[in-house]
Amino acid sequence: MRVSSALGDDPQGRPYVPRRSAGDTPYRLSPAIHCDWTHFHSLTEHPLHHAPAGLQDLEQALTLVRGKPFGGRPLPWAEPLAQEMTTRIVDVAHTIAVHRTARSPHHDLSKARRAIACALDIDDTAELLYRDWLRLEAAAANRSGLHTVISRLQHLTHSLNAPLQPETEQLITELLHTTQPHSPTS
Question: Taking the model in full, what pTM does it have?
């Protein structure tokens, strides 16, 4: 079965893969075909540079993320796209985390936590996200949460056989010396 036949026709009866006019004409997809990446990109293009006004669009974009780009094993032609997608997802999550963790009208640690978790599922080596997570746990006065993040970072550095970035080491030192233990309420 050919791909053009497998994809079928749109609701108006036009093929999703139009017939080529000549044998050397490249295949193309109908403009009726959309993908999550295109939608993600359109949701994040402007708000990424104008947050916090666009936080809702950025958060909506992260709801489109379902697993690593290309399943985590892109073919060689897709590797640059997978890297671009991963970088954009990390940037979006970082932007959300920064604005949702700060004491401001946009403060919402749950939304910050969801963004960080989503992006770490895509790139669990993004040290920038671990710093965001550390700041989030500090903002929540969650000392055990800080230790959880530190443990994950230690595991990461051990498995990658790479040291932490100086910014991360400095942040850990700073937060461990300034964050008070979370006292349970009755």
Answer: 0.82
